[in-house]
């Protein structure tokens, strides 16, 4: 997946369609602004991409993954990739990483952003963005497996759980919790009433609500109808909110562990 221009252009690119005099006129009129030597931004330029260039780097890692439309855990900082020998600039709300080779484009391509996220962040975060890229069709399964072979050795155990079916980072996080404990989990599994996010063991359905899909009134009613039908069919159903998965995760894990300890998930569903 190639990068877009994001409203940012090199002087060389501009000179293919404008004269130097025309470029100066566009700058004077406020339709174009000079970011730094050799780089210009249009009025619609992406602010994160512009900021990374001003800091002497390129946008990449998790910030780059987000620009490509991947499911990325909330990030309070912009991720900027600097050349290997660059001086670290003073900047608030910015996380810097280093890379020897920089692209000519204003942002790293998707595969580079994925590799950076997998290299510079924990294995769970890396798996989330990798599965998101796979689920969206931005990369193929073989390409995803290849990227997983490039991570540090201590992270490889997590990437063996790579799954094609994850619909969100919340699902990946919860599924990984069970898999790391040796518990069987099926993603996007079909029960009698319909599809469910996770089927843990034989009979425990775990639904992972996301803000973007489950907050609409009609979705709320559909979810509850499916929960009721699954319970009537003999399944144990647990519905986790975005807040429980991302803001109360330690507490949520403790309670999921307590349910696991009862071993109810090992029993086939009984209507």
Nutshell version of this structure?
This protein has 271 residues and is α+β, with helices and mostly antiparallel strands.
Provide structural commentary.
There is one protein chain. The protein has 271 residues and is of the alpha+beta class. It folds into two domains: 47-141, no CATH class; 165-266, Endonuclease, Chain A (3-Layer(aba) Sandwich), CATH 3.40.960.10. The chain is 42% helix and 18% strand. The chain has 13 helices and ten strands. The chain has helices at 11-14, 20-29, 47-54, 61-67, 110-120, 123-135, 141-148, 156-159, 169-179, 211-214, 217-232, 242-246, 249-261, and strands spanning 8-10, 32-36, 39-42, 58-59, 78-83, 94-99, 185-191, 194-200, 204-208, 236-240. The protein has a four-stranded mixed beta sheet with strand order 7-8-9-10. Strands 1-3-2 form a three-stranded antiparallel beta sheet. Strands 4-5-6 form a three-stranded mixed beta sheet. A hairpin with a 2-residue loop joins strand 2 and strand 3 (39-42). Helix 4 (61-67) crosses helix 5 and helix 5 packs antiparallel against helix 6. The longest helix has 16 residues, at 217-232. The chain is elongated, with a radius of gyration of 23 Å. The mean pLDDT is 91.
């Amino acid at each position: 997946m190639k990068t877009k221009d994001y409203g940012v252009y090199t002087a060389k690119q501009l000179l293919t369609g404008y004269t130097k005099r025309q470029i100066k006129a566009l700058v004077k009129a406020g339709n174009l602004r000079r970011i730094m030597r050799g780089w210009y931004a249009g009025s619609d330029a992406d602010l994160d991409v512009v900021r990374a260039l001003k800091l002497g780097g390129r946008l990449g890692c998790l910030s780059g993954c987000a620009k490509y439309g991947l499911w990325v855990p909330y990030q309070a900082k912009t991720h900027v990739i600097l050349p290997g020998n660059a001086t670290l600039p003073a900047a608030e709300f910015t996380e810097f990483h280093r890379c020897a080779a920089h692209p000519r484009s204003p942002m790293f391509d998707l595969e580079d952003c994925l590799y950076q996220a997998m290299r510079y962040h924990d294995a769970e975060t890396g798996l989330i963005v990798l599965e998101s890229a796979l689920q969206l069709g931005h990369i193929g399964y073989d390409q995803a497996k290849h990227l997983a072979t490039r991570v540090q050795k201590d992270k490889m155990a997590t990437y063996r759980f790579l799954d094609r079916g994850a619909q969100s980072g919340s699902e990946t996080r919860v599924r990984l919790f069970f898999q790391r404990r040796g518990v069987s989990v099926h993603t996007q599994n079909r029960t009698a009433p319909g599809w469910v996010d996770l089927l843990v063991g034989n009979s425990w359905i775990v639904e992972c609500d996301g803000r973007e899909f489950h907050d609409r009134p009609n979705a709320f009613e559909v979810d509850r109808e499916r929960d009721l039908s699954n319970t009537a069919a003999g399944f144990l159903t647990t519905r986790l909110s975005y807040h429980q998965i991302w803001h109360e995760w330690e507490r949520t894990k403790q309670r999921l562990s307590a349910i696991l300890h009862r071993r109810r998930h090992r029993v086939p569903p009984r209507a």
